[in-house]
Amino acid sequence: MSTPQSQASLSALADRWLPKLVLSPTLLISLVFVYGFIAWTGWLSLTESRLLPQMDFAGLVQYQALFENDRWWTAVANLGIFGGLFIGCTLAVGLFLAVLLDQKIRAEGTLRTIYLYPMALSFIVTGTAWKWMLNPDMGLQKVINDWGFPDFTFDWLVDPDKAIYTVVIAGVWQSSGFVMALFLAGLRGIDDSIIKAAQVDGASLPVIYWRIIIPSLRPVFFSVLLILSHIAIKSFDLVMALTGGGPGTASDVPAIFMYQFAFTRGQLGLGAASAMMMLMTIVAVLVPLMYMETRSAKRG
Amino acid sequence: MAKHLTPGRIVLYAALLLMAIYYLLPLYVMLSTSVKTLDDIRGGNLIALPQSITLDAWSKAWSSACTGVECGGMKGFFWNSVKMAVPSVLISTLIGAVNGYVVSMWRFRGSDVLFTLLLVGCFIPFQVVLLPMARLLGELGIANTTSGLILVHVIYGLAFTTLFFRNFFVTIPDELVKAARIDGAGFWTIFLRILMPISGPIFMVCVIWQFTQIWNDFLFGVVFAAGESQPITVALNNLVNTSTGVKEYNVDMAAAIIAALPTLFVYMVAGRYFVRGLTAGAVKG
């Protein structure tokens, strides 16, 4: 039988190694499935792999092929258009709603619930719903026509030059309530006395918001930008459900490009190269944002 | 304080109401289209009320609509998603709870660095792991199975669940744990007896977040589980984009609502936790 002392030292020993032991499977998983897999994809992008992976180093041929591929540049341009407009509009709508809701509104809870429910939906559901509403023959266009504007046309969904904008419409609808919730949380954290003092000084409410309140939401802006750019760069489901990248390849985005080349066209190397480009884009966008966020957080 | 109804307030309420209509319109359109007949859809317009209400589209969407070659409706795929989501959510949440406990209360040298390395998993675009994962699942013989999908969702959910629990546990005063240790409580005792009883809310947040993410996932589903074991999001997309035969918009909409119901339900009954999860996961993430 062990004495109480030896039992105590045994459990102290256990307490020393248990935490490390408990954490290690997750770390191992992360090491293999995140870092290892990124390295694997990175290496694959430096080979001539097509249908089957082959591991002979071939330099930057896949990146060269990628940069000479018109479809890739369409996808990149679309990401630029979509990303810019999606982030800009979502931010504007979300902030606007948050400011409105911050005016001591009756039924605020109900309104918040309504604004935010799209966030619970899958992008596939959102895409399906908007695809139907934007249907050029039977959708919103017909509603407006029936209201007495027979010449009104709204066929962006099938217009190669406009299809990407329909993705923006649906994306903003889905995500703006979420941004509203983040900003509203930020607004609620602001000390009322600052506003009262400004009011005593004779500042009008819009001026107070523009000059004092919105600038003080800086950290929230960074978080929102971080999340929205992340959603934008990864966007795949919404485009698949809404336009499928079409008409033709007109609304392709990098995520769809990657999926199609890697999984339906059997061009593993090119798919891997496009995936690595997506990763680098995320790093290039997120790292400066996170840096600025921590800096602004430190300054308070 | 009670405000009087000034012209400014009226404009304010009008704007809020208008925005509410904008958010509700797609839901209304989905619901009303799903109970219309095809003739009603073609003859009327998008926002008109149904002439008569029929649930035919619903029963077709549930049990006999065609998603590609198969014509068994969404039923089977709905259960695929349930079978995929429930274990993935439970496993990733439990592991995340223990991980979060370690990185917040049992920090050792280097644990902060390890935690940061783990967090990178929240940010990577999953495209960058798809190819090796597909290969691995193939070699393990679980490609195109629900078990394969569960594995993938657990692996890539761990970073988030760990983050949730870590952020919750760091708000608990150290004294609580220190006092328990002096009383002789060990690693598991403290976790099970002291922390678990007060962790209800964060479990809710984490479970809801994970459930929404996994149920709504499309990328992993479409890449790793084609065919019979595909989740409902993939089936819905196939249904809507099947180009054969007459386009049945009412069936599409009924199927879309079926796919959305579980997460909408969670949002309705536990919206509070849903929002908290979004903001906590997002702001810190």
TrEMBL record, chain A:
<dbReference type="InterPro" id="IPR035906">
    <property type="entry name" value="MetI-like_sf"/>
</dbReference>
<feature type="transmembrane region" description="Helical">
    <location>
        <begin position="208"/>
        <end position="233"/>
    </location>
</feature>
<dbReference type="Pfam" id="PF00528">
    <property type="entry name" value="BPD_transp_1"/>
</dbReference>
<comment type="similarity">
    <text>Belongs to the binding-protein-dependent transport system permease family.</text>
</comment>
<dbReference type="InterPro" id="IPR051393">
    <property type="entry name" value="ABC_transporter_permease"/>
</dbReference>
<feature type="transmembrane region" description="Helical">
    <location>
        <begin position="79"/>
        <end position="101"/>
    </location>
</feature>
<dbReference type="GO" id="GO:0055085">
    <property type="term" value="P:transmembrane transport"/>
</dbReference>
<keyword id="KW-0813">Transport</keyword>
<feature type="transmembrane region" description="Helical">
    <location>
        <begin position="113"/>
        <end position="133"/>
    </location>
</feature>
<dbReference type="GO" id="GO:0005886">
    <property type="term" value="C:plasma membrane"/>
</dbReference>
<feature type="transmembrane region" description="Helical">
    <location>
        <begin position="163"/>
        <end position="187"/>
    </location>
</feature>
<protein>
    <submittedName>
        <fullName>Sugar ABC transporter permease</fullName>
    </submittedName>
</protein>
<keyword id="KW-1003">Cell membrane</keyword>
<feature type="transmembrane region" description="Helical">
    <location>
        <begin position="21"/>
        <end position="43"/>
    </location>
</feature>
<dbReference type="InterPro" id="IPR000515">
    <property type="entry name" value="MetI-like"/>
</dbReference>
<keyword id="KW-0472">Membrane</keyword>
<keyword id="KW-1133">Transmembrane helix</keyword>
<feature type="transmembrane region" description="Helical">
    <location>
        <begin position="268"/>
        <end position="291"/>
    </location>
</feature>
<keyword id="KW-0812">Transmembrane</keyword>
<feature type="domain" description="ABC transmembrane type-1">
    <location>
        <begin position="76"/>
        <end position="291"/>
    </location>
</feature>
